[in-house]
Amino acid sequence: MPNTIYLASASPRRREILASLGFQPVLLPAEIDETALPGEAVADYVSRMARQKNAAARQLAAQRGLALAQPLLSADTVVALDNAILGKPRDAVHARELLESLSGREHQVWTAVYVSRGEQTLEAAQRSDVRFKELSEQEIAAYIASGEPLDKAGAYGIQGIGGVFVTHLSGSFSGVMGLPVFETVQLLRQLGAPVPPFAEAT
């Protein structure tokens, strides 16, 4: 299938974004150690995670006997506040703490994308600045009760209910979701993957 792309992620949002671009994602999610190194900058961390996910998926493909004739894409997204990575909430209590820290403040969302095809590799990173309105205790409690925050970096999903908290976004909406479309298409085009016709000349 010419539009096949291997995705080193189990994220339904990344899968949906790639499918909307005409690709047929084949999932190769692989577990890695996501511990940040001492003093590691947020941009360096997110890029390292994307690279390591790609390498782990390549190993998984080799174990399964997959030749990976089509591109393999990996990505990592983190939410950072005051240069500190917030991560995904451990539980509802932690989700409350994260949302309280974001309330009324601007934070950054970094997404790194890493693509490989054979020996070729390319990568890009995208940063978005997001500002939240002041959140009441009732809003936070109701949002946590919805279940949406519990599997998302920073404890919110901008494409879902969490979008009502966002007063300003500078950057990439799809990047905050987990896969910046513009950067992703450019990387895939450079690797010779079929991209939407309207993106070929960009």
Automatic annotation (TrEMBL):
GO terms for molecular function: dTTP diphosphatase activity; UTP diphosphatase activity. Keywords: Cytoplasm, Hydrolase, Nucleotide metabolism. GO terms for biological process: nucleotide metabolic process. Its EC number is 3.6.1.9. The record marks R13, T77, Q159 as: Important for substrate specificity. One of its GO terms (cellular component) is cytoplasm. It is found in: Cytoplasm. It is an enzyme of class 3 (hydrolase). Its main location: cytoplasm. Its cofactor is a divalent metal cation. Pfam families: Maf. The keyword Cytoplasm applies. The active site is at D76. It catalyses: dTTP + H2O = dTMP + diphosphate + H(+); UTP + H2O = UMP + diphosphate + H(+). Nucleoside triphosphate pyrophosphatase that hydrolyzes dTTP and UTP. May have a dual role in cell division arrest and in preventing the incorporation of modified nucleotides into cellular nucleic acids. Belongs to the Maf family. YhdE subfamily. This is dTTP/UTP pyrophosphatase.
